[in-house]
Amino acid sequence: MFTPPDYQKYTEVAGTYSLIIILLSFLIICFSSYTTIALYNRMQQPSFFRREVWLVLASFSMGFGIWATHFVSMNSMVIPIEMHFDYTISFVSMLPAIIAAFLAFQLVQGPMKSCWRHTIAAILIAEGMTAMHIIGMEAMKMDAIYRYDWKLLITGNIIGGLFAYFTLRLISNPDRTKVNRLLATVCLTIGPAVMHYLGLFSMTYYTEIGQPLADPSISHMHVLNSIIGVGVGLLLVGMLLTTYIDGYVDHWLKYYDVLTKLPNRRNWERQLTDDVAIGDLAIWNFPDLQRVNQLYGYETGDKILQQIGELLSSWKPKFAQLYRVSGNRYLFSVTQGNRSADFYKSLVVIQREIDQLLPIKRQEMRYTCALSKADQRKTKKQLYKEALMVVEQASTTRDWGLITFDPAIYGTSYEQEVLRDISQAMKEKHLYLVYQPKVEGRTEAFIGVEALLRWNHPEIGPISPAMFVPFLEHEGRMGEVTDWIIREVCRQIHKWDQQGVHIPQVAINIPGEYMTEPHLLDVLWNETNSYSIDPSRIELEITETSTAKSITLATVAVKRFKRYGFAVALDDFGTGVSSLSYLQQLPITTLKIDKSFTDVVPASPKECAVLNAILAIGRSMELQLIIEGVETKEQVDFLLDLQPDLLFQGFYYARPMTSEQLLEWIAATYKSNRLASVNKS
Questions:
Q1: 216 — pLDDT class (breaks 50, 70, 90)
Q2: C-beta of residue 156 within 8 angstroms of C-beta of residue 198
Q3: Most buried among 224, 269, 578, 655, using CB within 10 Å?
């Protein structure tokens, strides 16, 4: 392979290269690299398709591009030797590049240290490209022999590996800007191209002395060229279209309501700015919908919502935009100035039509239309807050119909103004997290913590979560706060890891309907990727109430969380709907039993009958069972007698603590051997 032949028998044959075909090979690898990066980016994001689909497509795109570049570059060589190709070996030569790309992309997502995983992955890609090149050359059948210049071959291998390393670093960067993607595409283009041509330049061809030379214009690559052309065209274009289609589906699911096809709350929130509002705003609220769902089922409620949406859409003024901003609320936003009188007339007409809507008349569905009027000072956010104030107070005072905001009537209290300042609280660290340990009862092994939200206001002092969390949920701000909690938890896990303390798992409470929002998975996936955290170290605690509103959507959401590696627990079990059918459908990993069951123990068998039934259900479904609120040794001993493999969380083991206090608690309990094991890295 590397030793020159006997010059008494063989003579060297020189060739030339076609510049046009060389440029074509660069275009092929460039297009392939762009497609690979696009597919890899889709793999990094929550998607309509499984992550593994994008991983296989990205690997195949890269492998196919490297393979096609090799054979096109071979075609650029004009040499007076007649060559044929073994098509079986030619296609087999594609496999090393595809397999190497697959393993490299998989490795980059793994838990290994950044420098090592990128280095090993780059080596895999470089060796895969080299193996593809050598096997591809073995597919050639010709009346000549060839030898490699090992120095050029190794140089090409090193250059290919270096550019692969730069590519992997760029695509692993959490800041996935267009510049990063462009640089990654350039690196992924240059590496294989340089490696291939250095591999070709390292080769010298020899024919036997006296052997007649062939006409260099004769080519036997027509079939292979056709396959490459059609394959590159159809396959790569198809892959690109797949990413755009998936992106469109993902965008539609994020920003449009599936039931009514109207723009949703997230779409509306993109319009919420501090700019002065152009026109008025109105919110239609149907508070009786929950009662209808309970009496007649969610299918009936969905039909009513669809009919309301169709009615509002048909009577929507051309100068306004309609959104469905929550389960029972629709919103009109006027997009033209000086249309207040026309908008008010439209609302009156819509009110008359809604009053005539048969399902609403039959079900006696009450409603409020809260109107907030624009002026030269009010922002969109102010108009939205004013309309929400009208809706909330109308629900309390049972005022129905078309109501216009009046600051003299709907003024806000000092406490409400304080609570609305949640963004400032997050920015200035008035909001913070505490962590309460979870312990295995039998062995007293430390298994993780639950992150709990606290607010220390600079003026009024500590505010109880029981006070501000319900208000934030009413205001629709709890999703924003949950995003902040996820970011803080991931940052804290990363900090603990750097300090050499391994916290096995951190539980995060997910509020109500937010669990079914696609944006939640976006935030979780992006943050865990940014800090290279194994998703299984994050446990999402959902409530029975959030699942009861739509068990279908809840099940789909939980399955997506599980598919991406996150653990899911059902919190406060026994206090909500407690539907066993829901419990059977949801693919949860953990069941958290509410503190109200702990408070009554030790107790008689009759008093513990419900608790025993819950424990038996959890055991039969092979769920982890966590008992909340244990405060005494007697409670722990009694519960362990009922079931020995219970997990506990409560004041008996530890109160909620700051991250610094938690580290001190771990050190103290580890030193005293009270806990069986505290993982340290």
A1: low
A2: yes
A3: 224
> pLDDT tens, 238-255?
666 766 776 677 677 778
What b/e string do you get for 176-213 counting C-beta neighbours within 10 Å, with b at 16 or more? Answer: beeebbebbbbbbbbbbbbbbbbbbebebbbbeeeeee
Query: Is 674 in a helix, a strand, or coil?
Result: coil
**Neighbouring residues of 312: CB distance < 8 A, sequence distance ≥ 6:** 284, 322, 330, 332, 350
Half-sphere exposure for 628 (CA within 13 Å, toward CB): 19
Does residue 216 have a cis bond before it (omega within 30 degrees)?
A: no
Question: Which contiguous run of DSSP H or E holds residue 569?
Answer: strand 567-573
Which residues share a beta bridge with 146?
Answer: 205
Distance CA 446, CA 532 (A): 23
- Residues linked to residue 453 through DSSP beta bridges, in sequence order: 433
Eight-class DSSP state of 434: E
pLDDT band of 330, cuts 50, 70, 90? very high
Q: How many residues does the chain have?
A: 681
DSSP for 454-469 reads EEEETTTEEE-HHHHH
pLDDT value at 217 more than 50: no
Separation between Cα atoms, residue 54 and residue 47, nearest integer Å: 9
pLDDT tens track for 498-508: 998 999 999 99
The yes-or-no verdict on residue 546 having pLDDT over 70 is no
Per-residue pLDDT tens over the stretch 653-681 = 999 999 999 999 988 877 665 554 444 33
Convert the pLDDT of each residue in 410-450 to its tens digit.
655 545 555 667 777 888 888 999 999 999 988 888 999 99
This prediction has a pTM of 0.52
Determine the Cα–Cα distance for residues 536 and 524; give it in Å rounded to an integer. Answer: 11
264, 323 contact by CB (below 8 A): yes
Which residues in 265-404 belong to E strands, given as ranges? 281-285, 320-326, 329-334, 368-372, 401-404
Provide the b/e sequence for 149-163 (b: ≥16 CB within 10 Å). Answer: eeebbebbbebbbbb
Kindly report each contact of residues 629-637 with a partner whose C-beta sits within 8 Å and lies 24 or more positions away, as own/partner.
Answer: 629/594, 629/595, 629/598, 629/599, 630/598, 631/598, 634/602, 635/598, 635/601, 635/602, 636/441
Task: Give the separation between CA 514 and CA 519, rounded to whole angstroms.
Answer: 9
Which residues, listed in sequence order, are joined to residue 215 by a DSSP beta bridge?
none
Of residues 217 and 15, more confidently modeled = 15
pLDDT digits (tens, 9 = 90+) for 355-383: 877 566 555 677 889 899 988 778 888 88
What is the distance between the alpha carbons of residues 478 and 480, in angstroms, rounded to a whole number? 5
**Which long-range contacts does 439-443 make (Cβ < 8 Å, 24+ apart)?**
439/647, 439/648, 439/649, 439/653, 439/675, 440/645, 440/647, 440/648, 440/676, 441/627, 441/636, 441/639, 441/640, 441/644, 441/645, 441/646, 441/647, 441/648, 442/640, 442/644, 442/645, 442/646, 443/676, 443/677
Q: Which residues of 46-80 are buried (b: 16+ CB within 10 A; e: fewer)?
A: bbeeebebbbbbbbbbbbbbbbbbbbbbbbbbebb
Between CA 65 and CA 73 the distance in angstroms is 12
- Residue 577's pLDDT is what? 47
Question: What is d(CA 244, CA 253) in angstroms, rounded to the nearest whole number?
Answer: 14
Q: Which of 656, 214, 123, 136 is CA-nearest to residue 438?
A: 656
